[in-house]
Amino acid sequence: MKRGTVVILGIYVTDLAFRAERMPLIGETIPGSAFAMGPGGKGSNQAVAAARAGADVIFCTRIGADAFGEIAQSTWRAEGITSRATVLEGVSTGAAHIYVDERTGGNAIIVAAGAAGTLCPADVDAIEADIADAAVFVTQLEQPIPAAMRGLELARKHGATTVFNPAPALPLPDDIYPLCDYITPNETEATALTGIAIASTDDARRAADALLAKGARAVIVTLGEAGALLHSAEESVLVPAFDCGRVVETAGAGDGFTGGFAAALARGESPSDAVRFGCALASLSVTRAGTAPSMPTLEEINAVLGERRAAVSNGA
């Protein structure tokens, strides 16, 4: 594969995160223990994760001409991400309500994509030159499916490795799967796509086989604290998660994994090593609050990987 840039198509939203001991019932108001506002959206989070992990990143989206859009632009500048964002007048930048369980770090999220929800194939055609020069192309499902499809088609046309994160889970056209070098569902998404409930690694392998049968070249089922399963015709490897400390918030873990995996692929790492790198990144991210702000640096990730290698060599 080519080495170099990661191009990501997806949405930006501003995260509005509330910490509380439980979700309120309809018609009920409860006290929260904390509130934070920051950059989010699956595509933008993945871009931040990949950039902090050492990749050159180009991010394509749409934002509004408003205060949340200004937060987006300043975030990408600070992270060294090249923006291909179209700014729309009269349409708001997206936002997300995130409930965080203050005891476990678990989350529930409502996303309103705003301007990014209007992304279309023409936006992708406008960055074809970027995709042609990229090593890896990444997209998800928070923007409309036709835009994601067009990105995968152009990436395949130009020889970029394609990483498709099918989140949130939606019904998909059959012809999207053969465009995927890697498809990266979590347990819930894998179940939605295959009808196979996942309660074990063997279940994950069966679901992954079903996705291979649909045409994907390789499947990575992310399994939370159990790690991630890399499954293809050539190999099936369960890569464990890392114990990096107390779990604070899990909202950015999946995006961190995908961004880290893409960054590692882009610099030429093997698929299994790239999955291990993504697991280390995600394991660090859950020890911190926020989505994009929780993403660790390359130095932090390499330190965790070094500790694991040292433990293995010492027989731990």
Automatic annotation (TrEMBL):
Residues of the active site are: D255 (proton acceptor)
Task: Give GO BP annotations, semicolon-separated.
Answer: D-ribose catabolic process
> Could you tell me what the cofactor note in this record states?
Requires a divalent cation, most likely magnesium in vivo, as an electrophilic catalyst to aid phosphoryl group transfer. It is the chelate of the metal and the nucleotide that is the actual substrate.
Biological or metabolic pathway of the protein: Carbohydrate metabolism; D-ribose degradation; D-ribose 5-phosphate from beta-D-ribopyranose: step 2/2
Which EC number applies? 2.7.1.15
Q: Does the keyword Oxidoreductase apply?
A: no
Q: Which residues bind substrate?
A: V13, T14, D15, G41, K42, G43, S44, N45, E142, D255
Span of domain Carbohydrate kinase PfkB? 6-297
Catalysis: reaction(s):
D-ribose + ATP = D-ribose 5-phosphate + ADP + H(+)
Q: Which cofactor does it need?
A: Mg(2+)
Q: Where does ATP bind?
A: N186, T222, L223, G224, E225, A226, G227, G254, D255
Q: What is its biological role?
A: Catalyzes the phosphorylation of ribose at O-5 in a reaction requiring ATP and magnesium. The resulting D-ribose-5-phosphate can then be used either for sythesis of nucleotides, histidine, and tryptophan, or as a component of the pentose phosphate pathway.
Which Gene Ontology terms of cellular component type are present?
A: cytosol
Keyword Metal-binding assigned: yes
Which protein, by its recorded name, is this? Ribokinase
